[in-house]
Specification:
The protein is mostly helical and about 70 residues long. Helix content is about 95%, strand content about 0%. The protein contains 2 helices and no strands.
């Protein structure tokens, strides 16, 4: 969870900077910085969980194959 939180903070800063640079508006930059990273952070969390399952599945398959040899 700490990895996800640090990613959210970093992403907030990047999103605000890009939003502000493109529009010149603190309000628009702030809105983009709140909405986009919040959604992306949730997606990232589940993405990480999915990859853990994929890696575990690969390990399980390798173990089954090794037993057959």
């Amino acid at each position: 969870m700490a990895k996800t939180a640090s990613f959210a903070i970093l992403h907030f800063g990047v999103a605000f900077t890009v939003g502000y640079a493109l529009t010149g508006s603190v309000l628009v930059g702030g809105t983009i910085a709140l909405v986009e990273p919040a959604i992306n952070t949730v997606v990232f969390f589940f993405h990480e969980k999915a990859w853990v399952k994929i890696e575990q599945h690969k390990a399980d398959v390798a173990e089954v194959v090794a037993r057959q040899v």
